[in-house]
Amino acid sequence: MLANIFLTSALVVVAAVVSVSGYNYYLSILEAKQIQQTYDTVAEIKKILAKQYNKNPDEITRDELIAVLPKGKNWEKLFLSNPIDGQNMKNDSIIDENVNFVISQEDKLKLLAIKSKLKNMNDLSNSTVDESNNTIKFSVSSEEKNRLDSEKLVQKEIKKLKRILFINLDSINNQDDFETIITDNFSTDIDILKNSLKLDLEKSKNSMDIMTYKKIKAYL
Predict the structure, then answer these.
(1) SS3 100
(2) CB 94 within 8 A of CB 101
(3) Each residue of 70-110: pLDDT tens digit?
(4) Residue 114, class by beta-carbon neighbours within 10 Å (0-12 exposed, 13-18 middle, 19+ buried)?
C-alpha cells in the first residue's frame, strides 16, 4: 500500500515535469515563430524606408522604424522585448537601437528561427558574436543594402558613360560603335547600363544630354 502511494506520487511528479517541459517547449515554438514574423516585418519596413529616403538600411534606427508604424499599438514591446516571456524590455531586448537582432547563444530554437530567415551566406556573415554577453547579433536587410550599393554604382557609371559618349558622338555611327564604347569602358552588364542610360537621358534637361540622346536614341 505504502509502495503504491510512493509510486503514484512519483508518477504525478513525472507527469507534472513532462507537462511543464511540454508547455515550455510550446512557448519556445511560439517565440521562434514570433521572432520570424518580427524579422519579416522589420526587413520589409527597412526596405521601404531605404527606398523612400535612398538611405543605407544599416543607418535606419529602431526609433525611425517604430515611428512609421500605425499608432495605438504597443510596438515598443514587440520590438524591444523577447516575445511571450519578456518582462524587462531594457534587459530583454531582441532588437537593439540599430535594428539588429540580439539573440542569446543558449536560445538554440530562436537562433535557428533567425538563421532560417537569412537568405544566403552573405547574410550569415553579417552576424557577430559577443562573448561577454553570450549573444549573437544579426543585421537585417543586407540584401537591400547590396541593392542600393549596386544602384549607386550604376548611377556613378552612367555619369561617366554620358561624358564618354558626348566626347565621342561624331564617331558613333551604328549599334556596334555605341556598344563598343560601353564594353571597352565598363564591366557592368551592358543591358543594365543601356536601360539606366535611357531612363536618365529621357528625363534630363541638360543640353549635352539632349544632344547625346538624339544621336544614340536608336541604339538604346
Answers:
(1) coil
(2) yes
(3) 776 666 666 655 544 444 434 456 788 888 888 888 877 77
(4) buried
